[in-house]
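User: Before I run my own analysis I want an independent prediction to cross-check against. Here's the chain; please return only the structure tokens and, at the end, one sentence I can use as a sanity check.
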Amino acid sequence: MATTASMPIPGQDPLVNRPTRRVVSLLASGTELVCALGAGERLVGRSHECDFPDWVKRLPVVSRPTFAIDGSSREIDELVRERLSAQKPLYEIDEALLARLAPDVVITQTHCEVCAVSPADLAHGGQATLAREQVVALSAGTLDAILTGFADVARVLDLAAEGARLVSAIRDRLSALSLKTKTLPRPRIACLEWLDPLFAMGNWGPELVELAGGENLLGSAGQHSTTTAFEAVRTADPELIVLAPCGFGIGRTWSELGVLAAYPGWSELRAVKNGRVFVADGNLYFNRSSPSLFETPEILAELIHPEHFPPVHEGRAWRRVPRP
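Assistant: Structure tokens:
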């Protein structure tokens, strides 16, 4: 769906020119959605995580994490748990910058307080400065809920027709893929959303696997992703493993493959022995509830049924892990 992203008007400075319904998106999927609706020029600010389409990186950054995000998977997990246990926020908002940007709409989320800025983060430190903005909070745990959220945001932006067209096109795309895969064999798949500790992918992950023609193991559809003992992975012994840590691109995940090799029995797993372990771009294609997520079933179909789906996303969205 990346081709639907709109570019800002050439030479337009979003801080000077004030289009109707000025938007600050504190959610990467929200930023991508606004662009997919053809309204990218309305964006005047973004979160520290908003990175697609690439030009949005030029927008003012309104949020920042309150913990180091450049450590290992284990280090990040420990820092997040410490802050949550102490009831400290994971993100901070630049209230002064937000006030100067004067948005009509602020997009945030309520689904996962770990993954992105939530309404609670907006209220932390002074809600009075935000009284005049309309806050749209996306909440999504399933593909249907994500599409409902797309339509909700489109209505707030006075783009209901554009939202309806986007949702319809996505549903048609999913239906076409499902028709192709429904008669194929369904190998058993494990999608891992974090490596240390292991998290099995929940939320919409199992739905993506099903659409792509696989049988999902470990994670539960519509439920939050949860820590998973390696013994559960070993017992399931999946035919294919997809590694797509939350917020990580291919390169960062690749650098942590040694973590998996250290688990006792990793090299004995069927998927590992058969060379069917893949690193995927979790940041763009698996973890955020954005239009790009609906390209993911096609990506998974390439991994699950290579004899029927050519590897058009290889290198960009996924890489095969060599046999040990």
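Sanity check: Residues 1-19, 111-119, 123-132 have pLDDT under 50 and may be disordered.
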